[in-house]
């Protein structure tokens, strides 16, 4: 099932998207009563996809991100091997989250702002100390995240919270796919297409098979550190190919089966 | 006014503490209707301080912390000068927050766990890009925070989110003092008393006059990076004197005018 959060003519709602094309066109949006965790109940209200606007599919209480989870990205950013710089965890604040289509707003003082297209896990149940084999039992589903990062701030601050945590630096969406078997998660293409001056170039073109820590290992590791709450998001790390974005650009992160997360870049 | 959040015989509530001793003994707890932001309304219900239990005075949507804001602490932890390692920002997750008296739970794999007693700012209004001279207009009040940190994890991970973000690693309290003039904030003693094997020693004995970035500068800096929401907490940095705690110890952070934040340490 595809779950999204929408702005509709009368307000906002969680909905299930039914039917329609891969990009949602023509789908029916069936309103979910209350929250989307557990077995959803439906109110009976529906909208057509074309009359609604997609919002970030969830508002997480925290966003935990795995840094340095792809060896080729470690090399391109830090110029070191992944043995010297193993995966690490960091946090992005909830105020960084925006939805599909919302602008990534770049302050002038945040320079070298790059996209990082990633697979994101959405937690479905309160949990702690989840064993890797049980990871599916605590997951609501999957979506796409763009772990937007000002490289200059990242290196200047040492800690990454500001560089990766500015308002709008966590685009999320377009929706949550709740079927953990929507694809082979160990062999999932991850792409990012950057449009600059009207020309589109595919910058990231990698695969989840390059992850250093696997998805079951990540859920075990993160839940060992932090109690996870329904709606919390885990960003599984960015593959190589990240590049600078400037105001006027558009960035499109694509994961087959999850769709496209597209955001314009604006000056703030 | 002192605002706290309490567990009372029938449930939980925000209350104003009126009268009583400096440590709250004998105070009357007047229930606040709804939330404590803006001019509070009272329900008329009251409890005596002795029949309630203090909880973390607020549940923040995010905890932003200033690292390396006291030169002597930079020296003791990093063995470098503050010119080489200027103040930086990091995030602690909401799930790390516990109240006064609640145990700090130390997992076996989190080694060299130290206390860091700090002054905390609680935000009262949604805000962004606050000018330093306007800082008071967005602040609900002040409390004490213990920025508990596993030094070994901190250095191993590079990013501090795990070392400083484990469940229970953000004791907060005992209450929020809403009068910004409760003391001279530029000359505020900050102490931490560690009880180990029945002996109590004062380990931190410093003063906010040692801060590198002042409170107005911190509010400006943090709100430049992140939209702040009511209840968000800013930890203003730890002075020198931090030391290891082990299960069985009790740590008491004291700031005159704000009281004592006391937490036992337990094995998890």
UniProtKB/TrEMBL annotation, chains A, B:
Residue limits of the Rv2993c-like N-terminal domain?
A: 1-57
Which segments constitute the Fumarylacetoacetase-like C-terminal domain?
Answer: 62-265
For this UniProt record, give its keywords in alphabetical order, as a comma-separated list.
Answer: Hydrolase, Metal-binding
Keyword Metal-binding assigned to the entry: answer is yes
SUPFAM superfamilies given in the database record: FAH
Q: Name one GO molecular function term.
A: hydrolase activity
Q: What is one Gene Ontology biological process annotated in the Swiss-Prot or TrEMBL record? A: carboxylic acid metabolic process
* The keyword NAD is annotated on this UniProt entry: no
Quote the InterPro entries the UniProt record gives. Answer: FAH, Fumarylacetoacetase-like_C, Fumarylacetoacetase_C_sf, Rv2993c-like_N
Superkingdom, according to UniProt?
A: Bacteria
Indicate the family of this protein.
Belongs to the FAH family.
Instruction: Report the protein name in the record.
Output: Fumarylacetoacetate hydrolase family protein
